[in-house]
Amino acid sequence: FTVANKACCGVGRYGGALTCLPFEKPCEDRDHHVFWDAFHPTQAVNKIIFESCYAPASTYCYPMGFQSLATI
């Protein structure tokens, strides 16, 4: 990620004061941003988190990863 200190869509300082409002234009390089708005990570960050937690021997998700949870 190249932008970790500014939200892709939002208002206020660093785009982090509020969520993305209607008619607010989001950034075009959203895969380079960590944050979508003041509260949510971008899809690229969510993908990394999911892939880290889906691994069978995940140490990031406790007490079990998503793959183990899906087989219950």
From TrEMBL:
UniProt keywords (A-Z) are:
Hydrolase
One MF term in GO for this entry?
hydrolase activity
Entry keyword annotation includes Hydrolase: yes
Q: Which domain of life is it from?
A: Eukaryota
State the InterPro entries in the record.
GDSL_Est/Lipase (IPR051058), SGNH_hydro_sf (IPR036514)
Is Transmembrane helix set as a keyword in this record? no
Under which name does UniProt file this protein? GDSL esterase/lipase
